[in-house]
Amino acid sequence: MQRTTRDHSEIQSWAQKHGGQPMVIDHPRARADRLGIRIDFPGESHAVLMSETRPITWDEFFRIFEDQELLLSYDDEPMGDDPTEWYHYEKRQAG
Q1: Residue 38, beta-bridge partner list
Q2: pLDDT tens column, 25-60
Q3: Are 15 and 22 in contact (CB under 8 A)?
Q4: Contact criterion met (CB below 8 Å) for 37 and 12
Q5: Please, which pLDDT band fits residue 15 given cuts at 50, 70 and 90?
Q6: Terminal alpha carbon distance of the chain
Q7: Contacts of 53 (CB under 8 A, 6+ apart)
Q8: Half-sphere exposure of residue 4, counting CA atoms within 13 Å on the CB side?
Q9: Are 24 and 36 in contact, with CB atoms under 8 Å apart?
Q10: Which end of the chain has less Cβ packing within 10 Å, N or C?
Q11: CB burial class (10 A; 0-12, 13-18, 19+) of residue 20?
């Protein structure tokens, strides 16, 4: 079942249940005006992506999450071999 939330406890609990750890995308050549966040799950094999990320604390993850006004849409019982397909971010709607 697909769920969408901004609740920090729910997000952290779901990620940890599946072995997920908070990461920041740190690509110095991109010169992006915003940091990117992701959740790293065991078994991911995207070498390029992994070389551009570094671990952060959940507090740092949620600070960026709130600064960028995001929601997390996730599959509460993810299936498939590619963890990058288990979730995605959405921008919160105004109002």
Answers
A1: 23
A2: 876 555 555 678 999 888 765 555 656 788 999 999
A3: yes
A4: no
A5: very high
A6: 26
A7: 23, 24, 25, 26, 38, 40
A8: 9
A9: yes
A10: C
A11: buried
Residues counted in the chain: 95
List pLDDT tens digits, range 67-91: 999 999 998 888 877 777 889 999 9
Q: Which amino acid makes up residue 79?
A: M
AA letter at 36: G
| DSSP line for the chain | -EEEE--HHHHHHHHHHTT-EEEEE--TTT--SS-EEEEE-TT---HHHHHTEEE--HHHHHHHHHHTTEEEEEESS--SS-GGGSEEEEEPPP-
